[in-house]
Design brief:
The protein is α+β, with helices and mostly antiparallel strands. Among the domains are: about 30-165, Sandwich (Jelly Rolls); about 465-580, no CATH class; about 580-690, Maltose phosphorylase, domain 3. It is built from 13 helices and 23 strands. Strands 1, 2, 3, 4, 5, 6, 7, 8, 9 and 10 form a ten-stranded antiparallel sheet that branches. Strands 11, 16, 17, 18, 19, 20, 21, 22 and 23 form a nine-stranded mixed sheet that branches. Helix 5 (about 320-340) runs parallel beside helix 7. It starts with a helix and ends with a strand. GO terms for molecular function: catalytic activity.
Length: about 700
């Protein structure tokens, strides 16, 4: 996988630089300084001396008295180790961290512990002389926008420099953090910001594997130096986290790993990668970090064939999940789809088949999987179990992925068997769980609750193929939107950006582009980026339908300091904007075959692209309501199809391009004209509307 990325970067080096660098939020180096003063308290002076661009002024921040403090704003979410220079010879200074402005405090940080009602204590340095101070490695803070500096001594304290060593993307060189392989730009600045915020979110959740969630109290006999592959044999245990927060657990092998969150949940979860992995593929192409994450799950596979709910150390409790088991299998297919690396699949194939057979073993006489209570854990939803529509849509998708992988491994017999089982699920699920009067699937046959996840996955998985039914699902999901986005009724009082990312794909698949763009603008741009409580740069893991910053209906406080404001599973718009609005779709691994099918909506122009191991793919289009102009570029040696949308509501148009000068064409039911058998290379098409 490292070779694949090197190939892509070499290709980019030979071509023009990736455009639209001004939108990239990743820093140009690993040294980051604050950009503004957010708040100050008590007696102090020269608080602006530590801002970016002013450190060379020769002035120092001076905190005159005990408990005087200043809060600095980095303008975006960052993560790493705080460093500072002091000219004082003695004293004590504390630092607190917060992702959201509501947790800015001179007494506490927001919380990194997953359980309980807790706040983290300040990071304290006792000054023993003038000079530079840095924390131990385990005191990395994975994500924060605000840092508060507090004088904890009796005498004045002076600091003449303060910076963060940016820790994300540890396997990339310091000057390469902005070396994206993909891009997106449109005439809508909200969409542009969302795409790049998604890219940056995934960078912040790509971490050093030795900086995973803390294990503070370790049971006797647990040797953290044993290979990751051996840890699943250890007995289950319970530990009590210490409020003295640390990041000190090695969660997998390698030099980088894709995890769930930046501040909290620095663990491997397979479900997140259903969103974060393809979003990474079209932005940084950092497949190796996802591969390391998936490797850790496959190394922890139980003898039954099932994968753990999450990676080390969560696996030590032998906690399992039907859906997250399937997400792990799908993840291998996703890596293959974007890399074309058959050897990678071959190395996983025996364990992949064992895992698939465990999933197949949950199918009962109805033809559907019957999810047991022991495997009912999921993303945060309730009611998983029985003949659940989300679980069965995921199983349907996993079986179809398995059939495709089986062909690459010369295992056609098992692939054909999985195809037949998928067809049985499709034949059983729709008549049992579809509610025609509602236009949505019910969660299972014992309820009328229509879940967001199951309905979105019914479309995404290909379980539903009828365009009318897909449109019904899209319309019914949109009808439930509230002021803060798309609700997930299967999780009480929750808006889930994770599941809403799949809902986005439903609207695009239904060719309801306006609905999809409206959801991105209102939920991701206006709220998740624009709300003053957010980071202005990364996407939150979830929140209340009221807009309150809590994601757990049982949490006793009106806001939850544990909430992560940088979560890779919330980056769905990044892949959707590239795939549907840019229209670039890989039909076979690495894009050996492809389709370019732009969706216009209310946009006037779009420029999108990315690279795989085969080369660069791009789609650049513009329209004025009468004329649609499209330029595409795909690698030589590939082939594909182009679905040219007719502008406005025109039913016929004059097409120019690929030796079709002035040809009159008519649209299909989705308003497109298809050009098949297009060889890789550079092509230009112009469509002029003729009649409505």
């Amino acid at each position: 996988m490292q070779i694949l990325l090197a190939t892509v970067l070499a290709t980019l080096g030979a071509a023009a630089a990736v455009p639209y660098q001004e939108y990239i939020l990743a820093p140009p180096s690993r040294i980051i300084r604050p950009t503004s003063v957010y708040l100050s308290r008590g007696s102090l002076s020269s608080e602006h001396a530590l801002l970016d661009g002013q450190v060379s002024s020769g002035r120092s921040l001076t905190l005159d008295k005990f408990n005087s403090s200043v809060t600095y704003d980095f303008g975006k979410n960052v993560g790493g180790w705080i460093n500072f220079n002091t000219t004082s010879s003695s004293g004590s200074v504390g630092f607190t961290f917060a992702e959201s402005s509501i947790w800015v405090s001179s007494e506490w940080c927001d919380a990194t512990l997953a359980a309980g009602v807790t706040l983290d204590t300040p990071l304290v340095f006792n000054i023993t002389g003038a000079g530079q101070y840095s924390p131990p490695l385990e005191k990395e803070r994975g994500a924060f926008r605000y840092i508060t500096v507090i004088n904890l001594g009796e005498d004045p304290l002076s600091i003449n420099d303060l910076w963060v060593h940016f820790a994300a993307m540890p396997h990339w060189e310091e000057d390469a953090l902005r070396s994206y392989t993909g891009w997106f730009h449109s005439n809508d600045e909200k969409l542009n910001r969302v795409w790049y915020a998604g890219a940056y979110t995934n960078q912040l959740v790509t971490i050093d594997p030795t900086r995973g969630n803390a294990i503070v109290q370790i049971p006797a006999g647990l040797n953290l130096s044993v290979p990751v592959s051996a840890r699943d044999s250890l007995a289950a245990f319970t530990f009590t986290p210490d409020p003295d927060w640390t990041l000190n657990t090695t969660i997998t092998k390698g030099t980088s790993v894709l995890v769930d969150g930046g501040k909290r949940d620095r663990l491997v979860w397979s479900g997140d990668m259903a969103i974060s992995l393809p979003s990474i593929a079209v932005t940084t192409y950092d497949l190796i970090s996802a591969q390391n994450a998936l490797d850790s799950l496959f190394n922890l596979q139980y003898t039954s064939g099932q994968f753990p709910y999450a990676g080390f150390p969560t696996n030590l409790g032998h906690v399992t999940s039907f859906t997250y088991h399937l997400y792990a299998l799908i993840g291998i297919g996703t890596v293959y789809q974007w890399s074309g690396d058959r050897a990678y699949v071959a190395g996983k194939w025996a364990r992949w088949k064992t895992g698939m057979e465990w999933g197949v073993g949950q199918i009962d006489a109805t033809g559907l999987a019957n999810v047991s209570a022991a495997d009912a854990l999921d993303w945060a939803r309730q009611g998983m179990g029985g003949h659940n529509i989300a679980a069965n849509a995921l199983l349907f998708r996993t079986l179809t992925v398995g059939a495709e992988l089986a062909r690459t491994q010369g295992d056609s017999a098992i692939g054909e068997r999985w195809t037949r089982l998928a067809a049985r699920i499709q034949a059983a699920a729709i008549p049992l769980l579809w509610q025609p009067d509602v236009g949505l699937f019910r969660d299972n046959e014992t309820t009328t609750l229509a879940p967001q996840d199951g309905n979105a996955w019914a479309v995404k998985s290909g379980l539903v193929t009828d365009p009318t039914q897909i449109a019904q699902i899209s319309e019914a999901l949109q009808a439930r939107w509230g002021a803060y986005g798309a609700p997930a009724p299967e999780a009480p009082d929750a808006v889930s950006p994770f599941i809403s990312g799949f809902e986005l794909e439903t609207h695009f698949t239904a060719n309801r582009t306006a609905a999809a763009l409206a959801l991105i603008r209102s939920m991701w741009a206006d709220f998740m980026l624009g709300d003053p409580r957010m980071t202005n740069s990364t996407f939150i893991e979830g929140y209340s339908t009221s807009g309150a910053l809590h994601y757990d209906a049982s949490y006793p406080a009106p806001a939850d300091p544990r909430l992560s404001l940088v979560h890779g599973w919330s980056t769905g718009p990044t892949i959707s904007l590239t795939t549907y609005v840019g229209g670039i779709q890989l039909l076979s691994p690495a894009g050996a075959t492809w389709a370019i099918v732009p969706q216009i909506g209310d946009l006037a122009d779009v420029d999108a692209g990315f690279s795989t191991s085969l080369g660069r793919f791009s789609s650049k289009w513009s329209t004025n309501g009468t004329v649609f102009h499209l330029e595409i570029s795909t690698p030589k040696g590939t082939t594909g199809s182009v679905g040219v949308p007719l502008p406005g509501n025109f039913k016929s148009a004059m097409l120019s391009g690929m030796n079709r000068e002035g040809e009159v064409v008519r649209v299909d039911a989705c308003g497109r004209y298809w050009i098949n058998g297009v060889d890789g290379g550079d092509h230009e098409f112009v469509v002029v509307g003729l009649s409505h």
